[in-house]
Design brief:
The mean pLDDT is about 90. Helix content is about 40%, strand content about 20%. Helix 2 runs antiparallel to helix 3. The chain has a single domain, classed as Glutamine Phosphoribosylpyrophosphate, subunit 1, domain 1 (4-Layer Sandwich). It is globular and about 85 Å long. The protein is α+β, with helices and mostly antiparallel strands. A hairpin with a 5-residue loop joins strand 2 and strand 3. The strands form two sheets. An eight-stranded mixed beta sheet has the order 4-3-2-6-5-1-11-12. Strands 7-8-9-10-13 form a five-stranded mixed beta sheet, with helices on one face. Bound molecules: aspartic acid (ASP). Aspartic acid binds next to strand 8.
Length: about 325
């Protein structure tokens, strides 16, 4: 039989627990309040204003963030002047253009292609992998076969400009990335639509003149990009080998899950990179763009020179990100 004291203890404990739960429910609601005028919003690596414009065109019509990021990323993919993404991307050291891309929707579904050749829009192939197969990632000739079976057209993606750059590179064959000189124009884009659905996409031709078969961070879910509707999303640019070793985009989302502002989360992950790989960080660039569920954003890089595109509140901006190291 319960004594009166036991009974009192239990009642007090019970009401404390209920109180705590109630408090947490309220607090969660309170913490989840979006910034005023925050949605829709889209952020992308580098000066990709035409891409954020394309994404905004979808978002401003009450469209889905997944459609917005796909539409946005398709812009540099088709741009022959963008030498790090899709058509016009610099080839590997044997002269082949090989492409990597990934995409995630608001349900946490993911699709990805890597080492894909001859297809101008790898991001759309990645979306088909996500939506029309039981898999997350397809690679190389299998990814190409799949794309062709879905009606994508086989094209020569090596432009004259890219071919000339490759011919020139072959004279020295120096395989060393130089911060912000060797161009990192990979597009990583994350967005939240008016219904607060979060999606992300990332596309690249990878490191210029890489060894054939090299795959970077961009098609790896959690490295080049990660989106979680409960928390937010992040996308990366820079030397893929460094992003891969720390699963940077996933880590940023996890930092936000623990309560960090997107800016602080990006800074934390860049600092960790510098702590773990001081040598590699000395002359290589890595940068992130980040959004959280409230519509707040952040961006940070190892070295100066990283800018990002932000479309929010009807304004399409290109902003210089902060960096860990000075000039
Ligand atoms: N992250 C890309 C890669 O390593 C390169 C880039 O950002 O330009 O493949």
């Amino acid at each position: 039989m319960k004594s009166r004291r036991d009974f009192l203890h239990q009642s007090i404990l019970g009401s404390l627990t209920a109180g705590t739960l109630g408090f947490w429910a309220k607090a969660t609601e309170w913490f989840d309040v979006p910034e005023k005028g925050a949605f829709p919003v889209v952020i992308a690596t580098w000066d990709n204003q035409k891409a954020t414009q394309a994404a905004w065109d979808v978002l401003s019509k009450n469209g889905r963030s997944l459609d917005a990021v796909e539409a946005g990323v398709r812009i540099p993919e088709a741009d022959p002047l963008d030498t790090s993404v899709g058509y016009g991307g610099f080839p590997d050291r044997d002269g082949n253009v090989t492409l990597d891309a990934c995409i995630m929707d608001e349900f946490g579904n993911a699709g990805s292609v890597n080492f894909l050749e001859h297809i101008m829009h790898p991001i759309s192939v990645a979306r088909k992998v996500m939506e029309e197969t039981p898999h997350v990632m397809l690679s190389g000739s299998g990814a190409l076969e799949f794309a062709l079976s879905k009606g994508f057209i086989k094209e020569d993606l090596l432009t004259e400009v890219a071919r000339e750059a490759w011919e020139k590179w072959k004279i020295t064959s120096e395989y060393k990335p130089v911060i912000n000189i060797e161009r990192h124009d990979t597009i990583g884009m994350v967005a939240i639509d008016a219904q607060r659905r979060i999606a992300g996409a990332c596309s690249t031709s990878g490191l210029a003149f890489k060894i054939r078969g090299r795959v970077g961070d961009s098609p790896i879910i959690g490295a080049g990009m990660f989106a979680d509707n409960e928390v937010g999303a992040a996308a990366a640019t820079g030397l893929g080998e460094m992003v891969l070793r720390t699963l940077g985009s996933f880590l940023i989302v996890e930092e936000m899950r623990r309560g960090k502002h997107p800016q602080k989360a990006a800074e934390e992950v860049i600092r960790r990179l510098a702590r773990k790989y001081p040598k590699d960080c000395a002359d290589n660039q890595v940068g992130y763009v980040v959004l959280d569920r409230k519509g707040r954003h952040g961006a940070y890089s190892l070295h100066p020179g990283f800018n990002y595109s932000l479309y929010q509140g009807g304004q399409n901006l290109v902003v210089e990100a902060g960096s860990l190291f000075a000039k």
